Amino acid sequence: MPIDFFEKRLRDLECQGLLRTVKDKSTPQGPRIIIEGKELINFASNDYLGFASNELLKEASLSAISHYGTGAGASRLLGGGTELHKALEKRIASFKDTPKALLLNSGYIANVVSIACLMEEGDYIFSDELNHASIIDGCRLSRARVFIYSHKDTGHLEELLYSIKNEGGRRLIVTDSVFSMDGDIAPVPDLLRIAERYNALLYIDDAHATGVLGGGHGSLKHFGLSHRPYIIQMGTFSKALGSFGAFVAAEESIIDWLINKARGFIYSTCLPPSVVGASLKALELIEKDKSPIERLWKNRDLAIKIIKDAGLEIGPSETPIIPVLFKNIEDCLNFSSRLFDKGIYAPAIRPPTVQVPRLRFTITAAHSEEDLEHLHRAIKEIK
Ligand SMILES: *Cc1c(COP(=O)(O)O)cnc(C)c1O
């Protein structure tokens, strides 16, 4: 039977502790959720500002539906977009202080199609070894030659760039600004300097920086830097902004090139108005009021203290993503399932997503002090 293959492979995964299953909840996204009838404090969501169930975002979404309907009905080039799409692109360009911006249907798609169409055969891409899977896939699709540099190791990056200094073709350096499984921050100022020295494009994935770093504006602002013509910034509406979809912000020629060449933009129906309406509202909220971001960082600092005090060792986190590393998969799964029994949701992250198994706690502005105290007690009891 042709399906025997899959059954056997799935059994293999199960034996290795690597089988994944979907867990769905019966509540909105938020600090308290119900999964399979069990009430849990949620440390697994990237809804950093608690916007995913914000009343103003919901209203904006409903109002977009009542005016524009539910489905976009076509790709942007065929007229699926609305004035909301255009307004969101304008707003993103001004928020990121770039000449132009383009909406794409998800962060995953944005990375795959943008990188794939910015570079081509004969070009060179330099990618941090811990970059997101969507970046890896975009690099592969581009047919450029890919050099992987050691994590955040700008010396290694320069060595690699130097090693091909006499070759033709173009160069692109690509990095997550906040690494999604370790929560550390890329050395963005050094990357700018290196990109300038080697005449390279610099592609920055701000998925976990948008709404979190630099007053919400992202990693460049965090480091006191501003847009330069060779920088391409990607960000998502799906994490801190509580909505869905993604953007690329860059020079006009780069955005126009994507409009003409990016397959996931050209050959896919655009985001529905309800989603675009919510994203617009989210941007308006973080530009007007920084208190959710301040609450997020206050909670994050407290969580670091609490997790350390309870006796767990934290990875290299500099952001609300807090990894706790384990020597083996079994211990990691065990710890996660004992936390689950105590009402804490922090799923184990395993290979191939990461090399070292870990619990990845994400902290949000919506967590209360009691939520964090509950986490403290639960970890101490298990230890
Ligand atoms: C989540 C994530 C993406 C994908 O974004 P989606 O909108 O969820 O598709 C891309 N890059 C990084 C670094 C991410 O963490």
Could you please describe the fold and organization of this structure?
The N and C termini lie far apart (47 Å). The mean pLDDT is 97. The protein has 383 residues and is of the alpha/beta class. 42% of the residues lie in helices and 16% in strands. The chain is globular, with a radius of gyration of 21 Å. Helix 3 (83-96) runs parallel beside helix 11 and helix 4 (107-118) runs parallel beside helix 5 (133-142). Residues 106-108, 111, 132, 134, 176, 180, 205, 207-208, 236, 238, 246 line the site of pyridoxal-5'-phosphate.
Q: What proportion of the residues is helical, as a percent range?
A: 40-55%
Structural class: alpha/beta
Taken as a percent bin, the fraction of beta residues is 15-25%
The count of domains is: 2
Query: What ligands can be seen in this structure?
Result: pyridoxal-5'-phosphate
Strand order of the largest sheet: 3-9-8-7-6-4-5
- Relevant CATH superfamily of the largest domain: Type I PLP-dependent aspartate aminotransferase-like (Major domain)
CATH class of the largest domain: Alpha Beta
For this entry, give a set of tags.
single chain, 383 residues, alpha/beta, Aspartate Aminotransferase, domain 1, Aspartate Aminotransferase, domain 2, seven-stranded mixed sheet, three-stranded mixed sheet, globular, binds pyridoxal-5'-phosphate
Précis, in short:
With 383 residues, this protein is of the alpha/beta class.
